[in-house]
Amino acid sequence: MIPFSFAYLWIFLVAAMGSFIFCLFAIGLIFSKQCRIKLKNGNIFLQSLFVSSCLCAMLAIGLSFLVKTAKHESQTEHEATYKTLTAPQTILGITMPTGTELYLFEPNNLDSFREATFPTPVAFASFKINNVRIPRGFELEMSDDRSITLRGKGRGQIEGWQCKLENYMKVYLDEKANISGLEFCVLADPVKLKQITLQANADIQRSQSPKYPDGFIAQNIWLIRNPITHYKNIPIEWANIYLDKNHQLLGIENGTLAQDLHFGGIDYPKGTEFSFLVHPWVKDQETWLFTPPVNQTAKAKDGTIYTNQQAILHTPKGQILQVLNAYDDKIMYRRSND
User: Fold this and answer.
1) 180 pLDDT higher than 60
2) pLDDT, greater one: 149 or 176
3) Which residue of 56, 241, 276, 301 lies most exposed, with the fewest beta carbons within 10 A?
4) Beta-carbon-side half-sphere exposure of residue 240 (alpha carbons within 13 Å)
5) What's the CA gap between 214 and 11, in Å, rounded?
6) Average pLDDT over the chain, rounded to an integer
């Protein structure tokens, strides 16, 4: 398709103005003998203006042809990439009803659809879906995510999670279009694990086992963004939770205290950041990191004041292991590996 840009708008303006002047000359030449004489015997400016207007008229004719060609190419491309099924059809293992609207990646190739919108909800596993999106082209180049996006309603179990489909869900399909894996969904019901309870409506996302700058690779497989209420004796109102493939807890990051807490001889205010480090500071030992919120302080029994510039490292029993610089690189990437 011929591209259009407002940077070229001046060409159309010149062609339009020149064509208008040419029309005035044409009317004068046809109906006025005096005009013909003046043009024939006129000065060089008048003759140059007439020649320029002729050229502009020719330019206008050429531009109109280009616009018509561009419009035709655009229409042809649209018809080749946007299709509506006139009969039920199974495409990539998905049964699609009459009236399904397809947006294709490759012109006229139904198997290359990047989006399908159904006129009525379609049964898919235990869900009712009305839209499917598959990443193609630059979407695959920009991201390693090969999952497809489903929109609709319903609930069903995938990889041990009871998922709820209300807005969208991202899954992996096998060759027969059966759901084979989960990338993202919303938790349908509360889930009790060994140390914590995940609340309904939590976001469940497959984690990519991030690699830390020092080479440590977190072997977590699930990232849960969840308003949990407690971890052991720590009241929490929000946290990122990391689990392994068996749904066992590996760590908690970006948690915030839901209320004031006295722990390890220190009074921490509500809003203090809490992390159960996925990447332990002390090898093979569970360590908890507390960082006071901005404009508030934590106070120890001996009167020591801790600010948001400091991160206090505890054992689960409260023992203080170290007081660290909260903005040191080694602490920053342990507090959050998203």
Assistant:
1) yes
2) 149
3) 301
4) 18
5) 59
6) 80
In angstroms, rounded to a whole number, what is the distance separating the alpha carbons of residues 265 and 61?
A: 86
Query: Given a cut of 70, is residue 287 above it in pLDDT?
Result: yes
Type of residue found at 288: W
Q: Report whether 157 contacts 163 (CB < 8 A).
A: yes
Model pLDDT, residue 275: 87
Q: For the whole model, what pTM was predicted?
A: 0.70
Which class for 54: exposed (0-12), middle (13-18), buried (19 or more C-beta within 10 A)?
Answer: middle
> Who's near 256: CB < 8 A, 6+ residues apart?
236, 237, 238, 239, 271, 272, 273, 274, 293
Q: Which of 281, 210, 221 is nearest to 250 (CA)?
A: 221
**C-beta of residue 39 within 8 angstroms of C-beta of residue 69:** no
Give the mean pLDDT of 270-290.
80
Q: What is the distance between the alpha carbons of residues 146 and 161, in angstroms, rounded to a whole number?
A: 20
Are 251 and 244 a contacting pair, CB within 8 Å?
A: no
Q: Is 274 exposed, middle or buried (0-12, 13-18, 19+ CB in 10 A)?
A: buried
pLDDT tens per residue across span 215-252? 666 666 888 987 678 888 889 988 888 888 888 888 88
In terms of Cα–Cα distance, which of 58, 35, 33, 30 is closest to 46?
Answer: 35
* Phi, psi for residue 23 in degrees, rounded to 5: -65, -40
Ramachandran region, residue 48 (left: φ > 0; alpha: ψ -120 to 50; beta: rest): alpha
Helix 33-41 vs helix 44-81: crossing angle, to nearest 10: 100
**Cα-based torsion angle of the residue sequence 29, 33, 36, 41 in order, rounded to the nearest 10 degrees:** -170
For the segment 128-155, what is each residue's pLDDT rounded down to a tens digit? Answer: 999 999 988 877 777 777 889 999 999 9
Please say if the pLDDT value at position 31 is more than 60: no
| Per-residue model confidence (pLDDT) at position 9 | 64
The residue behind tokens 């080479």 is 215
Distance CA 243, CA 222 (A): 5
Tell me the C-alpha to C-alpha distance, in Å, between residue 316 and each of 193, 272, 275, 284. 18, 16, 11, 13
